[in-house]
Specification:
2 copies of one chain form a homodimer. Chain A is mainly α and about 180 residues long. Helices cover about 55% and strands about 5% of the residues of chain A. In chain A, helix 2 runs antiparallel to helix 6 and helix 4 packs antiparallel against helix 8. The longest helix of chain A has 25 residues. At the A-B interface, helix 1, helix 2, strand 2 and helix 8 of A face helix 1, helix 2, strand 2 and helix 8 of B.
């Protein structure tokens, strides 16, 4: 499937609602659970997505549109949220993410990007040259991957509880060495 | 984490809302996409979860409570939904799943299960003896695993589109041989 801006926005605009549906009002037993040391809980994932809104996707799109490859992107700090949200609650993070995402999508729509602009390039600190089209596609997949992570982390809390069902529930054995 | 009925219901009651948040109003480009032949699209997943409500989890819980291991469970037909929903729309399936799930959770709550009842056993056609506690835990994990599948299937449609980002987006390389 080729990149399509409208189809991408269909996904991007739903992520805050999806996370709210999954997590609002849920006990911390689920929302603060992880897959092990240095892995994200659902709470951390929402914080990480907020970091993406504030420092990554739209910031990088702007660099591509304004400066192109001569100005490399800032690296994405995957742990910025830890200090930022140390005293915050999940409901407040869910609200914040929804607000930031809505504003970023309003901005993205306002650019009315052309095919030529989508082919413009930027310099990723580790991946080399990437197009705006690839950046926006990665934004969509990044959202979906982190929703998958939230439900996987929750599911794994019941690995023992399901007893003999483990082989029929492959989500329990995904990412035995957590990668995201 | 040990099985807990209230914590399980927290997850089970959110799945219909989560799927609605993810899928309602989304183009068929996303909702009818799959990971390859004989794998489930998001549309198929909702149908499969409906099959679970109608034929699996509560039906098996009843067998455990009423008959115990002397009456083996019916096998779960993973493809029942194909014929059942051939002429149905996704909005109608999302409504149907929400209605069935709500009724099943009302029933589950009405049983006011005791620890002794949760230890009762049934005979699974392939897994052997399982407890009611394990069955209800598996119901929770089954939901979460299929939400993970929905977002993974959607994400994979952009595998080409993200270009060099693939190694940073592990959801794209999960289940290269689809298992669920």
């Amino acid at each position: 499937m080729n990149f399509d801006l409208d189809l991408s926005i269909e996904v991007l605009e739903r992520t805050p609602v999806t996370l709210r549906a999954l997590l609002a009002g849920v006990s911390e037993t689920w929302t603060r659970a992880t897959e092990g040391p240095d892995t994200f809980s659902p709470f951390d994932v929402v914080g990480h997505l907020i970091d993406g809104e504030e420092t990554d996707w739209i910031a990088r799109a702007r660099i591509i549109l304004t400066d192109g490859p001569k100005k490399p992107f800032e690296p994405y700090d995957r742990f910025r949220h830890r200090a930022r949200n140390a005293r915050t609650t999940l409901p407040s993070l869910l609200d914040e993410f929804a607000r930031l995402r809505a504003a970023n999508l309003t901005l993205l729509r306002s650019w009315r990007l052309t095919a030529t602009q989508l082919d413009l390039r930027g310099e990723h600190p580790r991946l080399g040259q990437v197009t705006l089209r690839q950046l926006l596609s990665a934004w969509v997949v990044h959202d979906l991957g982190h929703v998958a992570q939230v439900v996987r982390v929750m599911a794994k809390q019941y690995t023992e509880a399901v007893g003999p069902w483990v082989p029929f529930l492959p989500v329990l054995t995904d990412h035995m060495v957590p990668r995201s």
